[in-house]
């Protein structure tokens, strides 16, 4: 089985270990409501437009989210094409921008 390609990591070569991928920069947890948006898109199994930050630039793509996981403190989504994207590298999914939500979850 081929290792998944890793994306949305500044200067990180494809095929690196997850630990290198995860530790390339500190992970910043995403807002819970935006996480709900990602889960909704994943459950609907729709290919949607996305924008991710990669190597300091925004990259647009159309993809289907097949899994959302956390490993070693880093939340990621796996796309149908095999790419793994850190959730803190997402700019937008299905037209919903991550920066329209507060930076953290407020649980009362």
Describe the fold and architecture.
The chain is of the alpha+beta class. The chain has one domain: SH3 type barrels, CATH 2.30.30. It has helices spanning 18-23, 32-44; strands spanning 6-7, 47-54, 57-71, 74-79, 84-86, 90-93, 96-97. The protein has a 7-stranded mixed β-sheet with strand order 1-5-4-3-2-6-7. It is globular, with a radius of gyration of 13 Å. The relative contact order is 0.25. Residues 1-18 have low confidence and may be disordered.
Unreliable spans are 1-18
Assign the CATH class: Mainly Beta
Strand proportion: 35-45%
- CATH topology name, in short, is SH3 type barrels
**Biggest pleated sheet:** 7 strands, mixed
Query: Termini, distance in Å?
Result: 44 Å
What is the H-and-E element order?
Answer: EHHEEEEEE
> What Rg, in angstroms, do the CA atoms define?
13 Å
Number of domains: 1
Q: Note the total helix count.
A: 2
Layout: helices, strands, pairs:
Elements: E1 6-7, H1 18-23, H2 32-44, E2 47-54, E3 57-71, E4 74-79, E5 84-86, E6 90-93, E7 96-97
Parallel strand pairs: 1-5
Antiparallel strand pairs: 2-3, 2-6, 3-4, 4-5, 6-7
Key features of this structure:
SH3 type barrels; seven-stranded mixed sheet; disordered N terminus; 108 residues; single chain; alpha+beta; 18% helix
Entry summary:
The chain has a single domain, classed as SH3 type barrels (Roll). 18% of the residues lie in helices and 37% in strands.
């Amino acid at each position: 089985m081929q290792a998944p390609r890793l994306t949305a990591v500044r200067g990180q070569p494809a095929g690196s270990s997850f630990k290198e991928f995860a530790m390339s920069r500190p992970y910043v947890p995403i807002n819970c409501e935006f996480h709900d948006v990602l889960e909704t898109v994943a459950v609907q199994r729709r290919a949607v437009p996305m924008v991710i930050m990669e190597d300091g630039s925004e990259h647009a793509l159309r993809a289907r989210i097949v899994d959302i996981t956390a490993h070693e403190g880093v939340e990621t989504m796996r796309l149908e094409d095999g790419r793994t994207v850190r959730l803190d590298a997402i700019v937008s999914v299905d037209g919903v921008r991550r920066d329209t939500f507060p930076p953290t979850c407020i649980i009362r």
